[in-house]
Amino acid sequence: MREAGPPATVSAFDERLLEVSATLPKRLRQCADYVAANKDRIAVSTVAEMAEGAGVQPSAFMRFCQILGFSGFSEMQKLFRDSYAGGWPDYSTRIQHLREREEGSPSALLAEFVEAGRTSLEGLLKTVDQQALGEAVKTLADARMVHIIGLRRSFPVASYIAYALEKMEVPAMLHSAVGQIDNNHAIRAGDALLAITFSPYSAETIELVEGVAARGIPIVAVTDTIVSPLRRFNAITLSVSEVDFGAFRSLSATLCLAISLSVAVGTARAGM
């Protein structure tokens, strides 16, 4: 059943997507997950390409668009194209020329990843809520011990934050899956948990967050989409969207947020 009307802004689109995603059947939930993680592709992709990315038939993707309130994919695409009007970077033209001349070469690949990283960094100020960032810094600075978990693709980010906090003499503990050693019992009242996970989300990270949330321990989450499972646990959420190239997604914006968060926490504790 179609909603009363289509979202008028990208922000309203995000709210609608979050509202309906939990009740969608499997195929349409695949559409929601893919769209939430790849909103940058909507303006430049066909419905067939979006459906292929989500792993569904085009007809299912069209049905998903209608559930969000649009007449079809074209109307949803127009919302995103209008929001980007005048905002396409000139640098992308140079990247395209490099692709055409040196496709597959190391220099072309470098340029591709530079462009993906640059676009991700430019979007960071739009995806991170400034009030949530302030609350996250205060929560972590006030904690007796900051516990950090981030596995697989998130592990470099988690380990970097642990390193940075240690250098600033902020009590911190990095949780990992090395040796399958469970350090969950080390999380005590007065501590805080910083959890980092991106689609496809780490089951171990979500399990730890769920257990910690049940104990009333504050949680700061660094994640990607508005349908991330970390949002179910009343965590202070910092959203990061990374543009990918091929099957690879860099950590440019995520690491920028990581060092910003770490330095802000260290500075706040130094002033206590």
Strand order of the largest sheet: 2-1-3-4-5
CATH topology of the largest domain: Rossmann fold
Mean pLDDT level: 82
* Shape verdict: globular
DSSP summary: helix tally: 11
Q: Strand count, sense and closure of the main sheet?
A: 5 strands, parallel
Proportion of helical residues: 40-55%
CATH class call of the largest domain: Alpha Beta
Strand content: 5-15%
CATH architecture group name of the largest domain: 3-Layer(aba) Sandwich
Report, as a whole number of angstroms, the end-to-end distance. Answer: 54 Å
- What name goes with the CATH superfamily of the largest domain? Glucose-6-phosphate isomerase like protein, domain 1
Report the structural category.
Answer: alpha/beta
Rg, Å, rounded: 20 Å
- Helix-strand string: HHHHHHHHEHEEHEEEEH
Domain SIS: 136-272
Organism: Rhizobium puerariae
Domain HTH rpiR-type: 11-87
Protein name: MurR/RpiR family transcriptional regulator
Structure description:
The structure is a single chain. The chain has 272 residues and is of the alpha/beta class. Helices cover 53% and strands 10% of the residues. It is built from 11 helices and 7 strands. The strands form 2 sheets. The protein has a 5-stranded parallel sheet, with helices on both faces. Strands 6-7 form a two-stranded antiparallel sheet. Helix 7 crosses helix 11. The N and C termini lie far apart (54 Å). Residues 136-272 form the SIS domain. This is MurR/RpiR family transcriptional regulator.
